[in-house]
Amino acid sequence: MRDVVTGAPGILDVSGLSIARNGKALLDVPHLCLDGPGPTLILGPNGAGKSLLLRCLHGLIQPDRGRVCQNGAVLNARHKARQAMVFQSPVLLRRSVAANLDFVLKRRSMPRAERKHRIESLLDEGGLGGKARQPARSLSGGEAQRLAILRALALDPETLFLDEPTSALDPSATQMIERMILRASERGVRIVMVTHDIGQARRLASDIVMMQAGRVVEHGKAMQVLEAPESDESRRYLAGGLVT
Amino acid sequence: MIPDFIRASIVALGLTAGASLAEEPFIIVQSTTSTQNSGLLDYILPGFEAETGIDVRVVAVGTGQAIRNAINGDGDVLLVHSKSAEEQFVADGWGVERFDVMYNDFVLVGPKSDPAEVKGDTDIIAALAAVASSKAPFVSRGDDSGTHKAEMRYWQVTDVDPTVASGTWYREAGAGMGASLNIASGMGAYILTDRATWLSFGNRGDLEILVEGDPRMFNQYGVILVNPEKHSKVRATSGQRFIDWLIGADGQAAIESYELDGQQMFFPNAR
Amino acid sequence: MQSFASEFNQAISLILNGDAELWAIVLLSLRVSVFAVLISAVIGMPVGAALAVARFPGRRALIILMNALMGLPPVVVGLLVYLMLSRSGPLGVLELLYTPTAMIIAQVVLVTPIMAALTRQVVEMLAEEYSEQLRSLGVSRLASVPVLLWDARLALVTALLAGFGRAIAEVGAVIIVGGNINHVTRVMTTTIALETSKGNLAMALALGVILIGLAVAVNAMVSALTLRAEREGLRHA
To answer: Which single residue of A5, A101, C11, C94 has CA 20 to 30 Å from A231?
Structure first.
């Protein structure tokens, strides 16, 4: 559990959000405000709608109803340009490690010399210093996800969304990625991350959104949700029981 | 004009036939496989080309297709062997005038075993009737070529309509002379062929000449300039030069001197 | 018929003796088909990629049509191009019939649908994988086309080689529009057809051996590329 380090920008505000398919509600979030300073972790069983909520927040999916606001304004292209997302399995371009970062920096119209410098410092940060020229697709799972996070950070995002970034990784790879996420949070990047790993939530979260069957069943300080959950669903999930 | 622009860019790519278009004139001769496969044209054309600097490009197809291509204007000179079709071509205005050039002859070849017992015959009509009654396999060009037209003329004189037996002993190849000979060689069948193609054919297998010398088997070649009034792009001057050469002393002598296996192939008879 | 062995020996000696005429024919074949394939790629690849990422009514039908065109019979293509280029045809004024350019045009018509269809398949698969990530990075559909084409480059080279294989081995179309004119439009396949019709099987076989050799070389390149792609993780899942 983390204490407040610095105030994160970009308060995310959700109201009346709903998505339904074939008469079944996949997502139904009347209100949710992400304004905590540290990482927000979205927790819940499979099919709870965690990834769907994340994609709505990032603007990848248009909800049937409702809206997402950032600092009070409806999410727009300028906001989205300052958001980045890391997916469960990293989608790396079929190019070298350095070229994957360069792709993003070029889109930001950064001059060549500055790009080169930035790539070096990013690779150092992710522990990929010696692998700049290697084909990105030949990296190990942990390295690939680190590169995906570096590429997201190369956008200098205000908000970084992560969708179960460590679900396929071993403990040491997971640890390296968690360290990168915490460093980004400390620098003032708002972190919104989906996980179903309670231990990970314990290690990273400043606040926790607990989801179940498309609804937010609890949202509060990490300590409070983990130690004294208010809803039955949260209690059962944290106890490792079946949530139906 | 757009076509000019397109042509200019194609020339710039160095792809057109004629990188030689401007400096080296050429004509296209629509002719038959027999003149090409026999090697006659390869033998006589260098003489004309050296004398005039005109490159002769030969498209060798069946007589029927050659005439159709010429009607479309896709050739400057027609050199084929089906006199009635050629005269029709001129009568319809597609050609300027028809000239006799040369003749060779058809021969009936067949398997050495000769199941129809026609070997030594000099009467092609009787021989074909014998083949029909023996039901021994017979391969026809079946492609509206000059040779095919000649064959059909012979069948007409017999009482037999071979096409009712098509698919049984009568096989219509729908192919060129060489391809049809390959088929006949493969199945040991009788086939009517021009002598030149036969002599230059390398895959005779078990076949040999069985019937020859019937005057009805003479095979007359004619040459015609495609009418420039029908197709303005016809290279009439160069084409006429080629025709004049072919039916003149030099061309006729060249045709006469062409031999294969010590045999004269074509007999010049331009008047 | 002479034995296969003796024909084959003659064929090999024709190749080994480096018959100048034979090599001129091989070179013309390569020139025509390489040009045709490059032009087909320039037309077909962007079309295929656009079909892969664009969404519009009639897209399905267009894809079905394109896949059907992959199997166009060469003789039909030859006939159509002949009718266009004939002096009595709409493009007769260009005087292109019986030239290498006419053969290139026919091969472009044959190969472009292959290029477009293979490109669409490859790019569509890749687009599916990249879609969310590229949108997350703010790359529009249109802007994603060059990204996808570049990242699919190895598969596209394979498509290029497949198109080349079809072009160089094709006889039905080029014999109609090229006319098989000696020293002008006589390529490997039309020479094989001609020499076979003359019963000159050794020469036909020699060219056949060279064609097969080219096919083997092209396939070896495809397989080498695929191997490299696997090593570098460039293949699609």
So the answer is: A5
Tell me which fold the domain A12-91+157-238 belongs to: Rossmann fold (3.40.50)
Q: What is the pLDDT confidence band of residue C3, given thresholds at 50, 70 and 90?
A: low
Interface test with B, best of C198, C201, C205 (most B CBs within 10 A): C198
Band (pLDDT 50/70/90 cuts) for residue C236 is very low
pLDDT in tens, B103-121: 999 999 999 999 999 999 9
Of B73, B177, B178, the CB nearest to C87: B73
DSSP states of A8-75: -S--EEEEEEEEEETTEEEEEEEEEEE--SS-EEEE--TTSSHHHHHHHHHTSS--SEEEEEETTEE-
Mean pLDDT of the region A187-206 = 93
Say yes or no: C184 contacts chain B, CB-CB below 8 A. Answer: yes
**Within this chain, do residues B109 and B211 fall inside the same structural domain, yes or no?**
yes
Which 151-210 residues of chain A touch chain C by CB within 8 A? Answer: 155
pLDDT digits (tens, 9 = 90+) for A131-179: 999 999 999 999 999 999 999 999 999 999 999 999 989 999 999 999 9
- Dump pLDDT digits (tens) for B3-46: 555 555 554 454 544 444 444 689 999 999 889 888 999 999 99
Task: Give how many domains chain B has, as a whole number.
Answer: 2
Contact B98, B222 (CB under 8 A): yes
Q: Determine the distance in angstroms separating the CA of B41 from the nearest CA of chain C, rounded to an integer.
A: 11
Residue A51: its pLDDT value, please? Answer: 94
Domain boundaries, chain C: 4-231
Tell me the residue type at C134.
Answer: L
A122-130's contacts with Cβ under 8 Å and 24+ in sequence apart are A122/A150, A122/A153, A122/A154, A123/A97, A123/A98, A123/A150, A125/A150, A125/A153, A125/A180, A125/A183, A126/A150, A126/A180, A127/A176, A128/A97
Lowest mean pLDDT among A234-238, B49-53, C39-43, C181-185: A234-238
The verdict on B113 and B198 lying in the same domain is: yes
pLDDT tens-digit readout, A84-99: 999 999 999 999 999 9
Which chain A residues are closer than 8 Å to C231 by Cβ?
138
Three-state DSSP state, A163? strand
For residues A55, A58, A64, A67, the Cα torsion angle rounded to the nearest 10 degrees is 140
The one-letter amino acid code at B99 reads: F
Q: Is the dihedral of CA C96, C98, C101, C106 positive or negative?
A: positive
Q: What pLDDT is stored for residue C32 in this prediction?
A: 96
Specify the domain boundaries for CATH 3.40.50.300 within chain A: 12-91+157-238
Instruction: Tell whether B44 and B146 lie within a shared domain.
Output: no
Q: Are residues B157 and B231 in the same domain?
A: no
For A168, counting Cβ atoms within 10 Å of its Cβ (0-12 exposed, 13-18 middle, 19+ buried), the class is middle
Q: What is the pLDDT of residue B139?
A: 96
CATH assignment of the domain containing B83: 3.40.190.10
Q: Which domain holds residue B68?
A: 2-103+220-268
Chain C residues within 8 A of A85 when measuring between CB atoms:
132-133, 136
CB-nearest to C232 from A104, A137, A155 is: A137
**% pLDDT > 70, chain A:** 95
Same domain, B123 and B213: yes
Query: Is the same domain home to B98 and B124?
Result: no
- What gap in Å lies between CA B199 and CA B44, rounded to an integer? 18
In this predicted model, which residue has the larger pLDDT, A122 or B17? A122
Instruction: Classify C4-231 by CATH class.
Output: mainly alpha
Chains B and C share 3 or more Cβ pairs within 8 Å? yes
Whether residues B198 and B110 fall in one domain: yes
Does one domain contain both B74 and B120?
Answer: no
